[in-house]
Here is the input.
Amino acid sequence: MSAGAQLPLAMVHEGEKVRVVRVSGNDEMRRHLENLGFVEGAEVHVITQTGASGSIVKVKGSQLGVDHATAMHVYTTTED
Here is the structure.
């Protein structure tokens, strides 16, 4: 991913580290993602990317699984 480009978390490649720039969705979705640690400025490390079924990521010291539809609501950029 080129520096500065915004990409949904679902499209980030395995092994990449990115930073959250915004979260979309209704209030309930945004609140849920915030509770998981997906807040503006948070670093996210994509550990595995399984395409349509989702990703395993590390955010705020926790490792968690995020399904593809949910990951499409988290917009990220590289840290550069």
About this structure: Residues 13 and 76 are 12 Å apart (CA to CA).
